[in-house]
Design goal:
This protein has 6 helices and no strands. It has 131 residues and is an all-alpha fold.
Length: 131
């Protein structure tokens, strides 16, 4: 026999369901995301100052960005935090740029494209609250 639920039980159940979607970030999660953004900007600035094009190692900037994004995504995932698909896509795009630059066209400079990917990841993270 099925038992009818009271209004109070229905309200409690509905509130529990709403709590799943009303997730707030912990301080640690927000700190990891801010650190990811900081590292992206720092790596871009340092590698831009080193002028890697003259050294013939243009693939270092996409590699560094991919390591930061994918490493941050894995850290957040392992801790059970939500990771934005933009983080995974940005990291994968940077890996693709690095492999293209390393194996197919070593003279191509991906500084501008890497900067655009960094900016997209940071902007979408700021707008949606997820990185």
């Amino acid at each position: 026999m099925s038992r009818k639920r009271s209004r109070k039980e229905n309200r409690q159940r509905r509130n529990q369901d709403d709590d799943r979607y009303d997730r707030r970030k912990s301080y640690a999660e927000a700190r990891v995301e801010r650190m990811t953004w900081f590292l992206l900007v720092l790596v871009f600035a340092i590698l831009n100052l080193l002028n890697l094009e003259t050294m013939g190692i243009n693939w270092v900037l996409p590699l560094a960005g991919a390591i930061i994004l994918l490493g941050s995504g894995m850290l957040q995932y392992m801790r059970g935090w939500m990771v934005s698909p933009v983080t995974w896509l940005g990291g994968a795009a940077l890996v693709g740029l690095m492999l293209f630059n390393l194996y197919l066209d070593p003279t191509r400079d991906f500084l501008g494209i890497a900067l655009i990917i960094f900016a997209i990841v940071i902007l979408i993270g700021l707008l949606t609250g997820e990185t």
